[in-house]
Amino acid sequence: MKANKAIFLDRDGTLNNNKDHYYIWRMEDFALNPGVEETLTELQQRGYMLFVITNQGGISKGLYTREDAESLHHQVQAMFEEKGVRLEEILYCPHHPDQENCLCRKPLPLLIQKALARYNIDPALSWMIGDAQRDVEAGKAAGLHTLLVEPNGDLRKILDRLG
Predict the structure, then answer these.
(1) What average pLDDT does the segment 23-43 reach?
(2) pLDDT for residue 35 is more than 70
(3) Domains of the chain by start residue, with CATH
(4) Which H helix or E strand runs over 158?
(5) Of the residues 15, 22, 99, 114, which has the maximum number of CB atoms within 10 A of its CB?
(6) Dist. CA 95–CA 55, nearest whole Å
(7) pLDDT value of residue 4
(8) pLDDT tens digits, residue range 67-95?
(9) What is the pTM of this model?
(10) 80: Cβ–Cβ under 8 A, 6 or more apart, which residues?
(11) 147 forms bridges with which residues in the sheet?
């Protein structure tokens, strides 16, 4: 069976603007960064599966619940689906290092590795894109190519850098 290729994207700061809201768990606070829709559409047309890998430490801090995060993620997936973009899965770490230790928080690669195994993805053909060094570290640890983008910037800038 032929292996798939994928793009793994950080959420806050990469897909959506988090300038005034560090913890985002309500759809009314979720605003796409410039070029996200066009970029994801183009990447999907290039044959990439699309995933979101996100740290959601606000859950551990008691600021919102897993249900809040999952509700937002379902709404985000539905919003993209209406635009013809399929996010295969949004994987998140609910832990915060001030509260507890875990194996799933970026820069650790566990969430990426789960998707690689679950969806038969070749890491050598795949990318992790994020706005923080921990995103790059997680991608490299999982064997992916990586791109560090400007926080809350125009995602279209990456298209000429990917195959």
Answers:
(1) 96
(2) yes
(3) 5-127+140-161 (3.40.50.1000)
(4) none
(5) 15
(6) 8
(7) 95
(8) 999 999 999 999 999 999 999 999 999 99
(9) 0.96
(10) 37, 40, 86, 87
(11) 129
Mean pLDDT of 35-39: 97
From the candidates 12, 29, 131, 135, give the one annotated as an active-site residue. 12
Determine the Cα–Cα distance for residues 114 and 152; give it in Å rounded to an integer. 27
Catalytic residue among 10, 20, 68, 122: 10
User: How many whole angstroms separate alpha carbon 146 and alpha carbon 129?
Assistant: 6
Known catalytic membership, residue 20: no
Residue 122: active-site member: no
Place of tokens 């699309």: 50
Paired residues of 145 in beta bridges: 127
Closest CA to 127 of 14, 10, 6: 6
CA distances from residue 1 to 37, 122, 143, 151 in whole angstroms, order as listed: 30, 12, 20, 37
